[in-house]
């Protein structure tokens, strides 16, 4: 698709403050400031997140404009995450975007964070539709049937936790840091998946990840009663097994969705798509089914404003702008 616009993208839905510039569909800068303040609490503390966004947002935007050699006058619009996310976090980015829109007299574009994860694909790929997209993140796990750049429908969804949450909670049970996904995958590459954690029974293409975390909890309890050093001595294998089970549960539903929908391509997006094993297995599924596979490079997988700016470019083409009395929303 051809674009003819310069857009500033702003993302602040959770604990990453980010801004990006996209010119005619090409990312010129994508600055991400991740908040370290949550690490010691083992999860995101909403109040601390909004305060950190407030401190970071203007310096991050300044740096983005400088790095991309963009003057504010060159902007055609300001695109910002409108939701879903944490209200206190969203408000900081959203109000900053509103202020810029008003003072610069440029249109304001509201971006859905999940649509933006899908739009991350269009930064680096010319996509063939219809496409099945597996969206795996900290708050969502969905299978999408993407008809074109603007339309998709949800054909599978988690009935409880998201896969990213299962990674994070599993890591917490193992005494590893936050976010848990990168921690588990770091140890998993050194181990063998010799323990099994059962899949949940769900209907159609739905997912369920709350049971696997409980089965990890009971498994660890039982083994620790026999050997108090079990976790230290087997950490690599436990991580490899837990990761393997999570990915197998996900891949199984992706395969089923391909059989049922005969897409022309498949893709993987969202923070958990940074996981190397999941990337490899998705590529293999594509090869077996003779389908092109699109996966964003890692900087566009976890939360980033590059994907917001790309989604903003699409909405700019459609002329979909927000009025200044619009509000952010917390749920999809
Ligand atoms: N290498 C990895 N392996 C597995 N999981 C990972 C990896 N890297 C990041 N993650 C997981 O990705 C999640 C963060 O993804 P993302 O930033 O897209 O989530 P979010 O924005 O909080 O949620 P949502 O996009 O649903 O609103 C965390 O749960 C984190 O553990
Ligand atoms: Mg996200």
What are the key terms here?
332 residues, alpha/beta, Nucleotidyltransferase, domain 5, five-stranded mixed sheet, 9 helices, 10 strands, 45% helix, 18% strand, binds adenosine-5'-triphosphate, binds magnesium ion
Structure, described:
The protein has about 325 residues and is α/β, with parallel strands linked by helices. The chain has two domains: about 5-120 and about 300-320, Nucleotidyltransferase, domain 5 (2-Layer Sandwich); about 130-290, Nucleotidyltransferase, domain 5, CATH 3.30.420. The protein is about 45% helix and about 20% strand. The chain has nine helices and ten strands. It has helices at about 45-65, 85-105, 115-125, 165-175, 180-190, 210-225, 230-260, 275-290, 305-320, and strands at about 5-10, 15-25, 25-35, 75-85, 110, 130-135, 140-145, 150-155, 265-270, 295. The strands form two sheets. A five-stranded mixed sheet has the order 3-2-1-4-5, sandwiched between helices. Strands 8-7-6-9-10 form a five-stranded mixed sheet, with helices on both faces. Helix 3 (about 115-125) packs across helix 9. The structure holds adenosine-5'-triphosphate (ATP) and magnesium ion. Magnesium ion binds near residues 137 and 303.
């Amino acid at each position: 698709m051809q674009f003819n616009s310069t857009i500033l993208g702003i993302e602040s839905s959770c604990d990453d403050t980010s801004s990006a510039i996209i010119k005619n569909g090409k990312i010129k800068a994508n600055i991400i400031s991740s908040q370290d303040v949550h690490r010691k609490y083992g999860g995101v503390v909403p109040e601390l997140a909004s305060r950190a966004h407030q401190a970071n947002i203007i310096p991050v935007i300044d740096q983005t404009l400088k790095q991309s050699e963009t003057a504010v006058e060159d902007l055609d619009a300001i695109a910002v995450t409108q939701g879903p996310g944490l209200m206190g976090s969203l408000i900081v980015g959203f109000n900053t975007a509103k202020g810029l829109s008003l003072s610069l007299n440029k249109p304001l574009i509201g971006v859905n964070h999940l649509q933006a994860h899908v739009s991350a694909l269009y930064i680096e790929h010319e996509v063939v539709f219809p496409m099945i997209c597996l969206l795996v993140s900290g708050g969502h796990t969905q299978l999408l049937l993407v008809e074109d750049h603007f339309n998709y429908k949800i054909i599978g969804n988690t009935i409880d936790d998201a896969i990213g949450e299962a990674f994070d909670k599993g890591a917490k049970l193992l005494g590893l840091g936050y976010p848990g996904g990168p921690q588990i995958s770091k140890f998993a590459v050194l181990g063998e998946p010799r323990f099994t954690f059962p899949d949940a029974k769900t209907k159609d293409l739905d997912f369920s990840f709350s049971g696997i975390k409980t089965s990890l909890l009971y498994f660890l309890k039982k083994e620790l009663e026999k050997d108090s050093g079990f976790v230290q001595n087997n950490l690599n294998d436990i991580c490899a097994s837990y990761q393997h089970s999570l990915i197998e549960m996900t891949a199984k539903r992706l395969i089923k969705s391909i059989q049922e929908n005969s897409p022309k391509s498949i893709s993987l997006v969202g923070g958990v798509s940074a996981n190397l094993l999941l990337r490899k297995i998705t590529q293999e599924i594509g090869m077996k089914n003779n389908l092109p596979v699109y996966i964003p490079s890692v900087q566009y997988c976890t939360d980033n404003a590059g994907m917001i700016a790309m989604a903003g470019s699409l909405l700019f083409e459609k002329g979909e702008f927000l009025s200044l009395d619009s509000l952010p929303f917390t749920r999809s």
